[in-house]
Amino acid sequence: MKIQFDCRHRIRAGTEETGDGGWEVCLDPPYNLKPGKCLVYSFGISYKWSFDDYMDQEKKCEVHAFDPSIGQDDFNRSANIHFHNLGLGGKNWTNAKKWKMYTLGSIVRLLGHKDRIIDFLKIDIEKSEWSSLEAMYLEGVLVQVKQLGIEFHDVPSNRKRVSIINRLYELGFRIYYTKQNFFQRRRSRLTRRTVYGCMESHFVNINFYKKSEKS
């Protein structure tokens, strides 16, 4: 995945680049986070709170964290971080593991954020990103997302998944940073080279940039 947007002011929110759990955030206007007014959705915690804590402590954002896999009931980690025992998926249902799964549009409505901008949407949900993105396209909910950080698992090996990523471009999302996940690497049996199973990609929605130029 190639860089498609030049972000001049980028920070690492959470664990450093060689660690697991941190994410890049673009702070170029109009993507800069306004303390006390920014809204963050964080899907996939797995007990790694460095990103969420950074967005709370350093940027004073309202953070909603989600992960049904850690066996934790809803709770408030801090005054700004709200944990929900829910998962992100391609439909609203309860799976075989008894996890409650909802589409992004359903969660936005559930939390009363239908008319709010999501400043940063982080998605690290172990392959469920593919069906979740398809649902987002149908719901039209990505129009209210300024930045998107997503970990793609099994980086596109078929046309359907390539088309899912291409749709992001069509909707105005441009990659400003991408890296392979160092913790998801193995040696190829065929070539004996190191291969990576995950790609972390960070996008800005240029529709917000266009709006800022007009105002």
From TrEMBL:
InterPro entries assigned to the protein according to its UniProt record, in alphabetical order = Methyltranfer_dom, METTL24, SAM-dependent_MTases_sf
Taxonomically, which superkingdom? Eukaryota
Recorded protein name is Methyltransferase-like protein 24
Signal peptide (from-to): none
| Matches recorded under Pfam families | Methyltransf_22
* Gene giving rise to this polypeptide: LOC106161709
Q: Where is the Methyltransferase domain?
A: 4-185
